[in-house]
Amino acid sequence: MKHIRSHVLVCGGTGCASSGSKKVMESLKQELELKGLESEVKIVETGCHGFCEMGPIMIIYPEGTFYCRVQPEDVPEIVDVHIYKGRIVNRLLYKEPISHEMIPNFEHMQFYKKQMRRILTNCGHINPEIIEEYIAVGGYAALGKALTEMKPEEVVAEVKKSGLRGRGGAGFPTGLKWEFARNAPGTQKYVVCNADEGDPGAFMDRSVLEGDPHRVLEGMAICGYAMGASEGYVYCRAEYPLAIKRLHIAIGQAMDMGLLGDNIFGSNFSFHIKVKEGAGAFVCGEETALLASIEGKRGTPRPRPPFPAISGLWGKPTNINNVETFANVPNVIVDGAEAYASVGTPKSKGTKVFALTGKINNTGLAEVPMGISMREIIYEIGGGIPDGKKFKAVQIGGPSGGCLPENMLDLQIDYESLIAAGAMMGSGGLVVMDETTCMVDVARFFLNFTQKESCGKCTPCREGTMRMLEILTRITEGQGREGDIELLESLAKNIKAASLCGLGQTAPNPVLSTLRYFRHEYEAHIRDKKCPAGACTKLSGYQITELCKGCGLCKKACPVEAITGEIKGQHVINQEKCIKCGACMAKCPFKAIIKG
Amino acid sequence: MKTVEDLKRLREQLQSDNRIRHSAGTQIIVGMGTCGIAAGAREVLTAILDEIAKNNIQDVNVTQTGCIGMCEQEVLVDIVRKDEPRISYGRVTPDFIPTLISEHVVNGRIVEERVLGKITK
């Protein structure tokens, strides 16, 4: 037997798995055996590190060296140079996008340094398929404390005092929700975890379930104890097969250990969790539609009241929270409400995980304290905009949220400030856009999404979003009319007021917020038939300027023979024939072709 | 698992397995430059790992380092106990490892006759 001198953590999250981490792991295993090191080095498959852009990610302990974009062919070098001889493989280290500095240890990387990882603290650092790894970092201690030292009402009071609010969108106080469900009459009650993460660009719930599933189960069990429920459901979308697999493994292991099941820790409290797979409808993230789906009915929402706390799953009192909300609960119980509430703003406590995507250098997950500015997230953690382009807007809160312009970058992020600015926290998706993005087109993209996902039950959402989408499409195609903006605004107002559920009530938000901050772009499309960002193909064309040397390369590149001109003479594009493919611009060695 | 105490006991036992991912108290550093490897550093490293496992010593990290320019004295092994200076041992062979581990790493007694030098910060 040998002392295990090194742990090699390889990310097995969805992002890294799709960039090849499985093969890296296999090759690592072979290479270690080849060198006879398998008895002193342990391979640990982890969940997501939240830095998917740089995947597959490998961390080697005890040094804590962070290697990125590791391919199977890099493995022999890592084993020989790092694991055998103890030297760092410089070429695989992370390089900061701005300073180009090579950073060997992940704790010193700008991306991680500015973060406050409470929910994601274990993600990427433990093996999510082994319950012992979670227990070793303090797992299930919160459940133990709640069951043996606290009364159910004390748990509710603690969560209320912590100021924890729902992380799924609207930000309703979690403790209050638990209290409603606790006080509702009835003996059979349910806990439901909403893991139907559907916003484009949001993947924090998936990463928590894949990287630290026990944390969510523990939060659910504590909730069950607090409100008097003995059964729980995780409603997870079928598009997350790895999350579902790990949930099943986690539930099985927790049952075997007696951390779920009957008479947990010798108390009277029993709690069982089932996993229900959703079939991919966005509307099932809405709580009443979600409950209908669990019951085996068609996933459509129903009017509230009665709220699920009174009449939820199978008509019984039910408490529904999002994955990230449950993941916060063990922290509240172990550290206490006061310690939890010491981070954040007066009305929004704790941390929030944001998913950074779009035109940003460091795509990934950023967990930050509430009250941080958008600028810090985008420029310090996110590493700024690639290719030296200019920032234009950030879309926050998914299809229900809004776009915020550059002058809002210093806004302190919390639930209230975002609503006031015309966006919302939503699930925490941040889509960054640069100067080449057309804001009308962005509004059209998000409305296209919500329109397709509208369940069709209520007229304002079904018909209204369709009409709005038609108007937006015609504006981006150069067919916009005077009065279209006003029509959009009045439709938006009615849809927001009259729709049955959150999907319809928030669907017009991307249109309203882009109208609020980028109205001039709409006007340019409608009046001048121009797309200022040059993104709407029907409104932009290519021109050859006098920088043209007459080399003829563009003429050869054009697939539709729209370019004419003699060698060494000025070339011209026939706008009638041009299909706006951009091939000429890519070929021109003199940068003589411009878009616009 | 029946009680909170069971959980606590299990946690403490498990924590020592994963301590490597946090900073450990004592560091053992083996010179693994070309000179070190040629002088038998690999065998020394294996002996160290065996000895640690045999005595079930917790809170120790074993790492490697490159050539520090004293190739003549390889294999070099440095030991840094928490808040103590870094002690270098020269011409280390596997048969010296049990003494080194029990004397210096466990009991904190420097094996003076084999010491090459002391590195203070």
What are the defining features of this structure?
A: 596 residues, 5-stranded mixed β-sheet, 4-stranded mixed β-sheet, B: 121 residues, alpha+beta, 4 helices, 5 strands
Largest beta-sheet details of chain B: 5 strands, mixed
- Greatest interface and its residue counts? A-B, 36 and 36 residues
- Radius of gyration of chain B, taken over Cα atoms and rounded to an integer in Å: 16 Å
The quaternary organization reads as: heterodimer
Sheet-strand content of chain A, in percent, reads: 5-15%
Strand order of the largest sheet of chain A: 12-11-15-13-14
How many distinct beta strands of chain A? 19
Q: How much is the average pLDDT of chain A?
A: 93
Strand order of the largest sheet of chain B: 2-1-3-4-5
Measured distance between first and last alpha carbons of chain B? 48 Å
Q: How confident is the prediction overall: mean pLDDT of chain B?
A: 87
Spans of at least 5 consecutive residues with low confidence of chain A: none
